Amino acid sequence: LTGCTIALDARENTMDAAGSLLEIWREAGIGENQRLGAFNFDPLGVLAATGTLYYPADRSCEIAAKLAADCRPMSHVTALLADGRPYHEAGASEAQELAAMLATLVAYLRACEAQGLRPRMALGKIALALAADADLFLTIAKLRAARLLVARAADACGAASAGAVMHLTATTSERMLARRDPWVNMLRATAACAGAAFGGADAITVLPYTWALGKPDAFARRVARNTQLVLQEESALGRVMDPAGGAWFIDKLTHDLAHKAWELFQAIEAKGGMARVLESGALQDEIAKVAEARTKDIAA
Question: In angstroms, rounded to a whole number, what is the distance separating the alpha carbons of residues 106 and 119?
């Protein structure tokens, strides 16, 4: 338990799951500064993915902020997650995914501040997550743009140094996986994992190539693990610092994405923030338009 980070994925049951993990740490005698964990409480992401929450969005954010405040003594544990993946899987563009992640982050910062947790401390208790897909250069640019956007928001809060070190997780995209001829999904996952590594993700999850067909078997899980190991050990991706840095094409794509995402983020804020646009369905409608256009392109 002191050798690796335990990351939870419990949606609205995060408080119960986090309590269980805390009890395990206590029983094992692991001190607060030795604990490595990510509770990943993301009520706004749950609302986006399922369309419902047990409590209203504002109340759910308040509960999440209290969890973040309780985690202050544990320096290596994050409580909240600003997650762009639910929007990606719904069909959002890269800029929409980034804007949703940033708006979620700002919503949680406001909730934390209401609980007495200043932005500098709150940023250390919030992790980030994005999807990585088979478009190598777009994935690299998206992750790099995420850093720029978060740095700008953190700077506006007077906590630039805290924003620069936020933990960014990338998961290979579900929506790119085919049910028919699933073996090609191995190539897609490899490209996505490489893009996430080039883009500077702190942690990467590779979904098994049979994910679209249901529960993966042992072989599919093994291939998913080996995808990371081959890229890490044989391609040495983990030994190069910012391999995309200085590439004009990627830098321009990064800044274009960040600029567009900032505009969309401002539009979300103008409508009352992330909770309001999700409750009204405004963001879902905008994402649906992009998803419909992509579906038509695929069909044609």
Answer: 10
Burial class, 168, CB count within 10 angstroms (exposed 0-12 / middle 13-18 / buried 19+): buried
Angle made by CA atoms 268, 167, 35, in degrees to the nearest 5: 130
Mean pLDDT, the chain, whole residue set: 95
Cβ atoms of 130 and 174 within 8 Å: the answer is: no
Q: What is the pLDDT of residues 138-189, one digit of tens each?
A: 999 999 999 999 999 999 999 988 888 899 999 999 999 999 999 999 999 9
Question: Do 64 and 108 contact (CB within 8 A), yes or no?
Answer: yes
Please give the single-letter amino acid code of residue 115: Q
Using alpha carbons only, give the angle 249, 161, 164 rounded to the nearest 5 degrees.
35
Which of 47, 95, 83, 122 is CA-nearest to residue 279?
Answer: 47
Tokens representing 202? 């702190």
Interval 24-42: pLDDT, tens? 999 999 999 999 999 999 9
The model's pLDDT over 206-229, given as tens digits with 9 standing for 90+, comes to 999 999 999 999 999 999 999 999
pLDDT surpassing 90 at residue 104? yes
Q: Going by DSSP bridges, is the β-strand pair 203-205/168-172 parallel, antiparallel, or unpaired?
A: parallel
pTM: 0.95
Q: Distance between CA atoms of 123 and 78, rounded to whole angstroms?
A: 9
